[in-house]
Amino acid sequence: MTQLFQVSISIYRGEPQDYQRYRHAALCFRPTSTSAAGMDAPPSPPLSSTSAPTSSPPTQPELALSADNPKLMQGPALVLHAVENNEGWELSVAASVDPSGLPNKSFATEVPVGMLTKTLSKAQLVSVVSQTTVDNEDPEFNSQVWVEAVLTRLTADSLLKGEDYHNGLDAMVDATMEAADELAM
């Protein structure tokens, strides 16, 4: 079954110290309640014949993913993230989990990104995201770099709007910057 997904980024406190560079980021995908097979975008409400034309298309406020509408960032999500183990980085996929309760992670916050522009099945979504590989050769690679790369891929594949890419990336950086700066220590 294909679905529309709301995208957000969960941020976790750094280990062993909560410094900016140690903050962990994970992508969260939640199916929308209005998802249906064959839909490419949330339906717009019909315009009445007495409505004046507007310069922007009508929107559905209840589907607007933002910090002002936190109920959309609640409940189980498909969580994908790059995790580091003894052998390097690898992709981790957890279906139907609460992002604030990931094992071995101390939840800090969740920031909105936006809505995917096309319907996908969970398997298709995981396939697209898994095309963004982890880079075990780069000593600067971390989960934040991986999230940015996935958002870039989703945008390049026209699955995410450019504005949502920028807003999500900015929000992730802001959430990361809330941690201590180890250079100031």
Can you give a write-up of this model?
The structure is a single chain. Helices cover 21% and strands 24% of the residues. The protein has 185 residues and is an alpha+beta fold. Helix 2 runs antiparallel to helix 3. It is globular and about 45 Å long.
What is the strand and helix layout of this fold?
Blueprint: E1 5-12, E2 24-31, E3 77-85, E4 88-97, E5 107-115, H1 122-130, H2 143-156, H3 162-177
Antiparallel strand pairs: 1-2, 1-5, 2-3, 3-4
User: What class would the helix/strand composition place it in?
Assistant: alpha+beta
Compute the CA-based radius of gyration: 18 Å
Give me the side-by-side strand order of the main sheet. 4-3-2-1-5
Strand content: 15-25%
Domain count: 1
SSE run: EEEEEHHH
Low-confidence stretches: 35-72
